[in-house]
Amino acid sequence: MSDKIEMIDELKILIKPYIQDEEAYKNLHEDTDFIEDLKINSANLVDIILDIEDKYDIDIDNDSMDKMLSVKAALEIIKIKVAEK
């Protein structure tokens, strides 16, 4: 598994098409909230999760999806799911 900075960079690429706040995107960090900070709507959040599943070849269950609201939460869930493979 790649290091955290690499994972954040990969995540940035996946979420780029869906962001509404360019300034928050430029300053993205672990505590960035997808909905509050980046203004990503819930339908697009589902698209991002599907993109994450494809990229890392993992399945993200509904409980985990509900928790994936920030960069930090997404990184933790990705790490757990990749480790379970």
UniProtKB/TrEMBL annotation:
Residues 27-66 form the Carrier domain. This is Acyl carrier protein. SUPFAM superfamilies: ACP-like. It comes from the Bacteria.
